[in-house]
Amino acid sequence: MRTVILGVIGSDAHVVGITILERAFEAAGFNVVNLGVQSSQSEFIDAADEHDAEAILVSSLYGHAEQDCQGFQEQINEAGLDVTTYIGGNLAVGQDSFEETRETFKALGFDRVFDSETDPEEAIEALKADLGHRSREEASSEKIQLGS
Ligand code: B12
């Protein structure tokens, strides 16, 4: 079963969104490790390592996600993890243009960025597609290695 690490980053204590996401991802067949609220970057990374997770799903509602996620991708790289990373929620104070917000978090290294209107099914379909794509790439690189 594919494992995802889910949690709310930083000092943020909004728990309802991740509870809904946990249930939706479990119902879709994922093994969800829910770190809960007020999770640090290293808690996400240690859990991903420990559970051999394929994805990290970060939630943030209180408007400080940009600060909380500084250096996160670098820490993931340093830990040698190959994980798909998503972030979602109410990511910026005001959020006049979500496209701008999306670019900010893409620049921080997230593979996909979701707003607070996101239906969990949308994220589930995206993750299935991203992980399926990755499996195919891994399988074909194995074949190339085997054939070489
Ligand atoms: C309930 C609530 C609280 C409760 C939280 C109780 C709890 N333990 O959960 C309390 C009263 C404690 C609270 C406190 C605060 N809150 Co508050 N809170 C809310 C409120 C009204 C609802 C949040 C909620 O539960 N929504 C329902 C769930 C189902 O939706 P959701 O959380 O958005 O999650 C969905 C999506 O966002 C998405 N999603 C979320 N994460 C992710 C991650 C991924 C990867 C994906 C794909 C999708 C995804 O999917 C989820 C499920 O559908 C919102 C306003 C609002 N209407 O959203 C403000 C709101 C989030 N709070 C806000 C603020 C400012 C605060 C405080 C800082 C206020 C203060 N000055 O003290 C504090 C922060 C405290 C802290 N340390 O976190 C602001 C944030 C502003 C911003 N980001 O610009 C909001 C938007 C209110 C506002 N309009 O100003 N809050």
Automatic annotation (TrEMBL):
<keyword id="KW-0170">Cobalt</keyword>
<comment type="similarity">
    <text>Belongs to the methylaspartate mutase GlmS subunit family.</text>
</comment>
<comment type="similarity">
    <text>Belongs to the methylamine corrinoid protein family.</text>
</comment>
<dbReference type="GO" id="GO:0031419">
    <property type="term" value="F:cobalamin binding"/>
</dbReference>
<feature type="region of interest" description="Disordered">
    <location>
        <begin position="128"/>
        <end position="148"/>
    </location>
</feature>
<comment type="subunit">
    <text>Heterotetramer composed of 2 epsilon subunits (GlmE) and 2 sigma subunits (GlmS). GlmE exists as a homodimer and GlmS as a monomer.</text>
</comment>
<dbReference type="InterPro" id="IPR006394">
    <property type="entry name" value="GlmS"/>
</dbReference>
<dbReference type="InterPro" id="IPR006158">
    <property type="entry name" value="Cobalamin-bd"/>
</dbReference>
<feature type="compositionally biased region" description="Basic and acidic residues">
    <location>
        <begin position="128"/>
        <end position="141"/>
    </location>
</feature>
<protein>
    <recommendedName>
        <fullName>Glutamate mutase sigma subunit</fullName>
        <ecNumber>5.4.99.1</ecNumber>
    </recommendedName>
</protein>
<feature type="domain" description="B12-binding">
    <location>
        <begin position="1"/>
        <end position="134"/>
    </location>
</feature>
<dbReference type="GO" id="GO:0019553">
    <property type="term" value="P:L-glutamate catabolic process via L-citramalate"/>
</dbReference>
<feature type="binding site">
    <location>
        <begin position="90"/>
        <end position="94"/>
    </location>
    <ligand>
        <name>adenosylcob(III)alamin</name>
    </ligand>
</feature>
<comment type="function">
    <text>Catalyzes the carbon skeleton rearrangement of L-glutamate to L-threo-3-methylaspartate ((2S,3S)-3-methylaspartate).</text>
</comment>
<dbReference type="Pfam" id="PF02310">
    <property type="entry name" value="B12-binding"/>
</dbReference>
<keyword id="KW-0846">Cobalamin</keyword>
<feature type="binding site">
    <location>
        <begin position="11"/>
        <end position="15"/>
    </location>
    <ligand>
        <name>adenosylcob(III)alamin</name>
    </ligand>
</feature>
<keyword id="KW-0479">Metal-binding</keyword>
<feature type="binding site">
    <location>
        <begin position="59"/>
        <end position="61"/>
    </location>
    <ligand>
        <name>adenosylcob(III)alamin</name>
    </ligand>
</feature>
<keyword id="KW-0413">Isomerase</keyword>
<dbReference type="GO" id="GO:0046872">
    <property type="term" value="F:metal ion binding"/>
</dbReference>
<comment type="pathway">
    <text>Amino-acid degradation; L-glutamate degradation via mesaconate pathway; acetate and pyruvate from L-glutamate: step 1/4.</text>
</comment>
<dbReference type="GO" id="GO:0050097">
    <property type="term" value="F:methylaspartate mutase activity"/>
</dbReference>
<feature type="binding site" description="axial binding residue">
    <location>
        <position position="14"/>
    </location>
    <ligand>
        <name>adenosylcob(III)alamin</name>
    </ligand>
</feature>
<dbReference type="InterPro" id="IPR036724">
    <property type="entry name" value="Cobalamin-bd_sf"/>
</dbReference>
<dbReference type="GO" id="GO:0019670">
    <property type="term" value="P:anaerobic L-glutamate catabolic process"/>
</dbReference>
